[in-house]
Design a protein that fits this description.
- By secondary structure, the chain is of the alpha/beta class.
- It is built from 11 helices and 22 strands.
- Strands 1, 15, 16, 17, 18, 19, 20, 21 and 22 form a 9-stranded mixed sheet that branches. Strands 2-3-4-5-6-12-13-14 form an 8-stranded parallel beta barrel, surrounded by 5 helices.
- Helix 3 crosses helix 4, helix 5 crosses helix 6 and helix 9 packs parallel to helix 10.
- It starts with 14 loop residues before the first helix and ends in a 17-residue tail after the last strand.
- The relative contact order is 0.16.
C-alpha cells in the first residue's frame, strides 16, 4: 500500500561477476538478477490497493526458477497456453488462482485447465464460450470466465497501434505519432493532462483486432454467454497498453475500462472482476525516467480502491525485464560497403526482437571497454540468413576485438522465450541466476542431440 517503505533496488552486477559467469558457464548465456526481480515485485505489490491482485505473466519468461521466486513472494499466475499452465503448476502457483488468457485455445487445453480446476478462463468470443461450456458440461462443472473486450476508445499511445524503439533516441515511440491529427491531440493534452487522452480507435490507427469482441458487440455476446449453463460470467478483460512509462496513460485507459464495466453492469450483466492486463514498461536506455510506481499506486488508491470490483493485473516485463542480460562474445569483425559488422556467438535464435523493438538491443556494454571511443556497428549473428541482425548502428568500441564479451541489457522479458531456437540447430543458451554472491545454473545449455529426440527416421 502507498506509504510503506520499499526495499532499495540492488546494485547492478559488476563487470567482474559478468565475466565470471561467462568463464564458468560459457557463452552465450542469459543471466538473471533474482534480487532485482524481488525488488520490482515488492515495489509494485506494496503500492496496490487491497482490491488488486498481481499475476505474473509467464509469457514474459517461463523459467521455473524465476516463476517460482514470484510465486513464493505472493504473485498469482497468468498463462496463455497449456505449456505455460504446466510451468505455472511446476513453479508452485495454485491452479485456483491462475488466469488463462489468449486466443485460439484448443479443446484439449480447455479440458486440461478444467481438470486442474483453473481459477478463471478469459474467453475471446461467444463461440469459445460455447466450446468451453460443452467441455465443462461433460465434466459436470461450471467454469468461471471473463470476456475479453476490444474497446472503442484507447489512449493515443496504445501499443496496439504499433509501439517501437526509436533508432536515434532509443526511446519508446508509437506509430500513431506520425498522424497529424494525433500529434495535434497529443499537443493539446500534454499541456495539462486533464485525462482526455482517449480517442476513437480509427483515429489511433488501430481498429480491427484478433483479440476479444468489439465493445459495440459486447452486450450481444454477453447475452449469448449468460444463456450457457456450465460457464459463469465473472467480469471482463481489456488489455490495450504495452511498455508504458507514463503511469497516467494506464490510468486513463483503465478508467475507460471501469466505465465499460459499469455500463455492462447497469444492463444486468454479472461484472465483478476486471482484468486490466499489463502495460507497465521499462526504459531501454539510461535516459528515460522509470515508471513512477509510488505515484501510480496513489492514483490507483484514489480512483479504484472504492470501486465494487476485484482488479487483476498481469505483469511480466516490469517484473523481470531489467533483471535479465544476454551475454555473448564477438566471433568476427568485418567491413562491408563502408559499414562495420560485429558477428556474435549467438543471434536472433537466442534474442529475437521484432523490427519495431530491435533498437532496444542498443542498450548494451562491452566488458572492459566501457570508456572507449565508439563507432556505429551492425551487430549480427551466426545464422545463414540476412534476417539475423540483432541491431543496426549500435555504438561499439572503436577498439573492439574478437573475443570481447558483449552484454545486452533488459533481456529478462521476451528474450529466451521469444527467440527462434531451432533455426540452424545451434544449441539454446544456458540460463544462470545471480542469488546473493552465488551464480547458479537454472537451465543447462541444450545439446545437439536434443534437436533429434522426437524425430523418427523412416528407412527407405
Amino acid at each position: 500500500m502507498p506509504g510503506l517503505t520499499l526495499p532499495l533496488a540492488p546494485a547492478p552486477p559488476s563487470a567482474a561477476l559478468l565475466s565470471q559467469a561467462v568463464t564458468q558457464f560459457g557463452a552465450p548465456l542469459y543471466l538473471y538478477d533474482l534480487a532485482l526481480i524481488e525488488s520490482r515485485f515488492a515495489d509494485l505489490n506494496h503500492s496496490l490497493p487491497q482490491n488488486f491482485r498481481l499475476h505474473y505473466a509467464l509469457k514474459a519468461n517461463s523459467n521455473l526458477t524465476l516463476s517460482h521466486l514470484l510465486a513464493r513472494r505472493g504473485a498469482a499466475a497468468e498463462v496463455s497456453s497449456l505449456g505455460e499452465f504446466i510451468a505455472a503448476l511446476k513453479s508452485g502457483y495454485p491452479a485456483e488462482e491462475t488466469v488463462f488468457t489468449g486466443p485460439g485455445k484448443t479443446n484439449d487445453e480447455l479440458a486440461e485447465a478444467l481438470n486442474y480446476h483453473i481459477g478463471l478462463i478469459v474467453v475471446e468470443s461467444a463461440n469459445e464460450a460455447r466450446r468451453l461450456n460443452q467441455i465443462a458440461a461433460e465434466r459436470g462443472k461450471q467454469q468461471p470466465i471473463l470476456l475479453r473486450i476490444n474497446p472503442q476508445f484507447r489512449t493515443l499511445n496504445s501499443c496496439d497501434s504499433g509501439c517501437a524503439i526509436d533508432a536515434k533516441t532509443n526511446r519508446v515511440v508509437h506509430a500513431d505519432e506520425n498522424f497529424k491529427a494525433v500529434s495535434e491531440a497529443i499537443s493539446e493534452t500534454n499541456s495539462s493532462h486533464n485525462g482526455d487522452t482517449l480517442k476513437p480507435i480509427a483515429m489511433n490507427g488501430q481498429g480491427a483486432s484478433k483479440f476479444g469482441v468489439d465493445e459495440a458487440q459486447a452486450a450481444d455476446e454477453l447475452l449469448q454467454i449468460q444463456s450457457l449453463s456450465h460457464v459463469r460470467l465473472q467480469g471482463i478483460h481489456v488489455f490495450t497498453e504495452s511498455n508504458v512509462l507514463d503511469y497516467r496513460q494506464l490510468i486513463d485507459a483503465w478508467q475507460n475500462t471501469v466505465a465499460i464495466a459499469h455500463r455492462l453492469r447497469s444492463q444486468g450483466f454479472d461484472i465483478n472482476i476486471i482484468d486490466f492486463g499489463g502495460g507497465i514498461g521499462v526504459p531501454y536506455n539510461s535516459v528515460d525516467a522509470a515508471f513512477d510506481v509510488p505515484a501510480f499506486g496513489a492514483a490507483l488508491q484514489a480512483l479504484f480502491s472504492h470501486e465494487p470490483f476485484h482488479f487483476i493485473l498481469e505483469m511480466g516485463r516490469y517484473l523481470v525485464c531489467e533483471a535479465g542480460m544476454y551475454l555473448t562474445e564477438v566471433l568476427d569483425i568485418k567491413e562491408s560497403q563502408g559499414k562495420r559488422f560485429a558477428i556474435l556467438n549467438g543471434g536472433v535464435h537466442h534474442l529475437y526482437r521484432t523490427p519495431a523493438m530491435q533498437n532496444a538491443s542498443k542498450f548494451l556494454r562491452v566488458l572492459g571497454k566501457e570508456s572507449s571511443d565508439t563507432m556505429p556497428t551492425t551487430i549480427a549473428g551466426q545464422l545463414p540468413t540476412p534476417i539475423d541482425v540483432v541491431v543496426r548502428d549500435a555504438l561499439l568500441p572503436v577498439d573492439l576485438e574478437i573475443g570481447d564479451r558483449l552484454v545486452i541489457r533488459n533481456c529478462g522479458a521476451y528474450g529466451f522465450n521469444h527467440s527462434l531456437t531451432n533455426f540452424a540447430l545451434h544449441p539454446a543458451p544456458a540460463e544462470v541466476a545471480i542469488w546473493g554472491d552465488r551464480l547458479e545454473l537454472i537451465r543447462a545449455r541444450s545439446r545437439y542431440e536434443d534437436f533429434f529426440q522426437h524425430q523418427r527416421l523412416i528407412q527407405f
